[in-house]
Design brief:
The complex is a heterodimer of chains A (385) and B (234).
Chain A: H1 2-13, H2 15-42, H3 44-48, E1 53-58, E2 66-67, H4 70-75, E3 80-88, E4 102-106, E5 117-118, H5 121-129, E6 133-137, H6 138-144, E7 151-156, E8 161-173, E9 183-186, H7 187-197, E10 204-205, E11 207-212, H8 218-228, E12 236-240, H9 241-251, H10 253-284, H11 286-295, H12 299-336, H13 347-374, H14 377-380
Parallel strand pairs in A: 4-9, 6-8
Antiparallel strand pairs in A: 1-11, 1-12, 2-10, 3-4, 3-11, 5-8, 6-9, 7-8
Chain B: E1 12-25, E2 28-41, E3 45-49, H1 56-63, E4 71-76, E5 79-80, H2 86-96, E6 97-100, H3 112-117, H4 127-140, H5 156-168, E7 174-178, H6 186-203, E8 206-211, H7 214-219, E9 222-227, E10 230-233
Parallel strand pairs in B: 3-8, 3-9, 6-7, 7-8
Antiparallel strand pairs in B: 1-2, 1-4, 4-5, 9-10
Chain lengths: 385, 234
């Protein structure tokens, strides 16, 4: 108890130095938290992927479509329980800066495949009743202050024309990692228009979402689906939803690696700053350490005193940084919107940050503690002669 | 705390024979103590005098077990302290030696009471017992009304009295004082010396004091002079 009191008073002793170090530590941990959260946000789609969903797309590239007729054949594959499909619509809302994913989906069982989208039966029914109905994620609705019954107009770029949709439903994510920034409308509405303006693209879907009975059979089922269409004009490539999402992330892997590296560079920098502070502190207090040794206190006491002070400063900064990360992440999330749709600081990131703070505290005190233990009393007291 | 019933005796408490100590400065070996022979009786008040660099503080450090000799025998309170490891020496110091430094060496973040309690953290005492002992020691040095003051709130003389209370609180065998009046004005220095004399006279404490000041040495019962590492007169 006396030791703890001594540690805390030592922390408060150099008020300005300690506050600046704690602030620096807090800023570093805040940056670490946000950078880690950015990486997690990048992988949010992968993390949210269901293990019992496969995605079948054109083997050549995702930009090439598949015939709608494939659905029945895929359904015939053993272990396949549901098959839905989607088309990337693209389009522009207000201008290019207001990006969010817009997809035409079908058939009417589409939302059964996505239990993570929570919306009422009534809204699902309204969606399949209203030809140009749309269902939108909660974050998007809040951002644009839409309400049920509003007309939302998109300007087509892949599919030309002015597209008017009526908002009939709003989904909430089952967990914090569910993307609530997507915009769904009916595939048959899209196909109706496509028949008139781009007849060659009619009756084609961007990709199939295949629900399987057991994730253990994902490999077998994927192989069976692809075998069905081998040597056809549109061969398929079927993979797990996770692998499909990973394909997108892999395209930007270098950015993710860079963000990860920067997060550790930040930690390295603050480690050096704290180590410098502790080295200065320990150097100034050498006569005190020598006095403790003279009085009979052993190396363990000195190590605890120095490491304890370093850990206290690091932990204070860590707690402050983690505390600030939540509102900062919220503000950041509102700014970036659908670009990083799932952007919240996970408790694991908070725990990691606090763990990193403690590790920094211990590491920064290593050298000063070692020196304090090794000091010769007579020299440190300046009494040789 | 101090045993007020301690009786003076002529039992030797410090026995030194053929003590050598040198320090290395760069490649040069500088001899500091050259074959010291010295016996100090229990209950005596000894002053070690000599010019700067004569080796008096080094001798004090060796007797107190905070430095080791190169050669010679050094028996303090019946223990040959040259044979002790660093950890054993630390324990031995905590149990047998009280220290008074020229610049007090109090912990600035601790109050007078907490500073005096420090050596007792190494004893098997609970918090209440530590507090009682520390208050008694502070009472003895006349600072009981300043127990919750921090060192910076005390004068030099008062700080040195806190240091004396810290030195005596665990009732050590020996009190080692290194220039205890060196940083004090004349009046405060007198008060500190009177206090040391009182501890020696009334409580039978053995005190070894290093000093430059002949007036301080006058308070001691025995004065040893060191010159160039040799104890040449008494």
């Amino acid at each position: 108890m006396a030791l703890l009191r001594l540690i805390l008073r030592n922390v408060l002793r150099q008020g300005l130095r300690s506050s600046l170090t704690v602030t620096g530590m807090a800023v570093a941990i805040l940056a670490f938290c946000l950078l880690r959260t950015t990486v997690e946000a990048w992988y949010a789609g992968v993390a949210a992927a269901s293990p019992n969903r496969l995605v079948s797309r054109n083997a050549v590239s995702l930009i090439f479509t598949l015939p709608l007729s494939y659905r029945q054949r895929i359904l015939s594959v053993p272990e396949v329980t549901h098959v839905a499909y989607a088309n990337w619509f693209g389009g522009i809302y207000i201008d290019e800066k207001h990006f969010f994913p817009r997809m035409a989906v079908g058939p009417s069982s589409f939302f059964d495949l996505f239990p993570e989208f929570r919306l009422s039966e009534r809204q699902v029914k309204a969606f399949w009743t209203q030809r140009n109905g749309c269902i939108v994620g909660r974050k998007l609705v809040e951002k644009y202050r839409w309400k049920i019954g509003d007309t939302i107009t998109l300007t087509g770029n892949i599919y030309p024309g002015e597209w008017r949709f009526v908002l009939v439903g709003v989904y909430d994510g089952a967990t914090k990692s569910t993307d609530e920034t997507q915009f769904f409308f009916r595939w048959d509405y899209l196909d109706e228009v496509v028949k008139k303006v781009l007849p060659s693209e009619s009756g084609r879907v961007g990709w199939y979402i295949v629900q399987i009975a057991s994730p253990n059979n994902a490999g077998t089922v994927s192989g069976a689906i692809d075998a069905l269409f081998r040597s056809s004009l549109a061969e398929t490539l079927t993979e797990t939803e996770k692998a499909f999402q990973m394909g997108f992330v892999a395209m930007t892997e270098a950015i993710v690696v860079a963000v990860r590296v920067v997060s550790f560079v930040v930690i390295g920098v603050i480690l050096i700053v704290l180590a410098n502070t502790m080295a200065m502190t320990a150097r100034e207090r050498q006569p005190e350490y020598a006095t403790f040794k003279t009085l009979g206190f052993g190396p363990g006491f000195l190590v605890t005193l120095i490491v304890g002070e370093s850990m206290a400063i690091a932990l204070l900064g860590g707690i402050l940084g983690v505390g600030l990360s939540v509102p900062t992440a919220d503000a950041f999330s509102k700014q970036v919107g659908p670009l990083l749709p799932v952007f919240h600081v996970h408790w694991k990131t908070m725990a990691l940050s606090l763990g990193v703070s403690l590790a920094i505290g211990i590491a920064a005190a290593g050298l000063p503690a070692w020196r304090a233990v090794r000091i010769r009393i007579a020299e440190a007291l300046g009494h040789v002669g | 705390m101090i045993d007020q019933d301690s009786q003076r005796s002529s039992r030797p408490i410090v026995l030194i024979k053929g003590l050598f100590k040198s320090y290395r400065r760069g490649v040069q070996e500088v001899p500091v103590l050259q074959g010291i022979d010295l016996t100090i009786e229990e209950g005596s008040f000894v002053a070690l005098m000599g010019p700067s660099g004569s080796g008096k503080t080094t001798l004090l450090n060796l007797i107190a077990g905070i430095d080791g000799p190169d050669d010679g025998s050094l028996i303090v309170g019946g223990t040959d302290i040259t044979g002790l490891t660093d950890a054993e020496l630390a324990r031995w110091r905590a149990d047998h030696v009280g220290f008074i430094f020229q610049f007090y060496n109090l912990m600035p973040v601790l109050t007078a009471l907490e500073n005096v309690e420090l050596p007792l953290l190494l004893q098997k005492l609970n918090r209440r017992q530590r507090r009682e002992h520390a208050l008694l020691a502070l009472d003895l040095v006349g600072l009981v009304e300043r127990v919750h003051h921090y060192p910076k709130e005390l004068s030099g003389g008062q700080q040195q009295r806190v240091a004396i209370a810290r030195a005596i609180v665990s009732d050590p065998l020996l009190i080692m004082a290194d220039e205890p009046t060196g940083d004090l004005d004349k009046k405060s220095g007198e008060e500190v010396l009177d206090l040391l004399q009182q501890l020696n006279r009334d409580f039978g404490k053995t005190i070894i004091m290093v000093t430059h000041d002949p007036r301080a040495a006058d308070k001691a019962g025995t004065v040893y002079h060191l010159d160039k590492g040799v104890l040449n007169n008494q």
